[in-house]
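Narrative of activities, Objective 1.

The group set out to show that a structural description can be obtained from nothing but a protein's sequence at a throughput compatible with the screening campaign. Below is one input-output pair from the validation batch, recorded exactly as produced.
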Amino acid sequence: MSRRGQTSRGGSQGDIPLLSFRQITSKSSQAHAKNILEALKQKEIHLPNAINWDWLGKVGMEEELTPYLVKECNMGDSTIICDGWLQLFKIQELIFAELCWEFFATISFRGGSEYYSPNVISFSLGGELPQCSMAEFAWRIGIYDQSAMLNEDFETFLENCHKDLPEEVVASTWWNTIANRVYIPSSAQEGHIRSPIHRLIHRFIASTINIRKDDDKVPTLDIFYLWSIITPDVFLQPSLLYSQISCGWGC
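Output recorded for this entry:
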């Protein structure tokens, strides 16, 4: 088990039954999972410090963050509350290396836009091999509330969420609206962002979904996430996170 704010090295952990992947009946899939596992064990497990939401509330910054992290989407006769970013940034659970290795070595995301197809996402966890839809996975990890999923307009809502910057938005041009320097992906830094709230939002992005030790860098993917959060009426598309998760920490 690892605590937040610490870095640990993987390596040999002895004979752990969960990591033998006996529940995977396909020999080729089992061998593939074991290859990814060995690569994962060589990586550092770096966990960022937990976000202190109590402190943010006391100094009034949580109130300033709320309009960015909790948005309403009007869908005709119904309204969907999109608080996916807030829920994502508030995930602060204990991390068990063995379960992380098992999960990331086996997760598969089929892709596409079939949000309710029951076998789009599959993985091994605790020796089990569950399969689920994108919508269910989003609910299970707390990105969207189950009541939102059951809304008859939820699939339409997801289809209208952005998966990339729209054609009319150029990353370097948009960066100039929030920062003091010309955008160069290899050298752009969080400190160039003018607004303290926008800098804080970037720190959330860098230290959660894009876990990096050097949180100050602002690569192109960070620009998209920043734009998604800062821009009104733009909402979190879960499939983007699934694609990142299924990369298995870069393996």
